[in-house]
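Page 42, continued from yesterday. The earlier attempt failed because a stray header line got pasted into the input along with the sequence. Redoing it now with the clean sequence only.
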Amino acid sequence: MSHDTLVEGPSTPATGVSRHSTAEREPPGMEIDTPTLTNALSYVSHRLLQKTREHHTFIVTGDVLFSLFFRSKRTTRAVELLQTSTLSLKQKEALVSGVLKTTEKYGIGRDDWLNNAGEVVMRRLNMHGGDVEEVVARSLVQKEIVFSGDGMTLVAVDFLYELRKMLHLLSRELEGGDGSGSEEMGGVYIDDMVELVRRLVTVEGRGRSLRKEVVEERYKTLVFSDGAWAVLAEEYERRFGEKGLREDGDEVGDRS
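This time it went through. Structure tokens are written below.
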């Protein structure tokens, strides 16, 4: 699995938004390096298979994507899981047991694993019922595997959902809201947003820049501003020397 490597650069001067995060404070939590996280996931996977004799599929969202899938970060703070189906009591007990033992063995926080944190974030963003089901369905169709073990597979959340969520939070931050400064939501990372756009352009778009209407037609609860779109477009172009985002009025054939 190959991924583009992002070029390091300075802060975006026009807005004062940090290259790394729009939040001034880092959200609390222990930093987990990628090799340790991979070992921990293997341990949980083995425990799940051992206890349930079944294979389980979960969706991952948030910070962990950029550690495990994009490999653009060396560490992550949390494993935000989104369940693909309701767990039985036996399955939940096995997950809880596995995560608790993993916490003891590897020193990894357990709250996000046990609280279906991906859905918790969605509900805080006023996404309910059908919205959550749409994210799950599109993520399973996208089928980008983040981790695979004998008892557990983790797939990446729909990249357009992740991008739109981050645009929504960036909009709130730029407007002086609590989009990224809150403990619940964590920081909005410009690097991560650029990474998502790069993936959508080079793989899904086959080199064509991402149209605004494509992003706007999904997950409409997550409203974002023209200002947030412009900040991301400017940062992508600064980084790669070409346009990654375009307005709906731009020519369809434009690859610049």
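Notes: Residues 30-157 form one domain.
Reminder to self: strip header lines before submitting.
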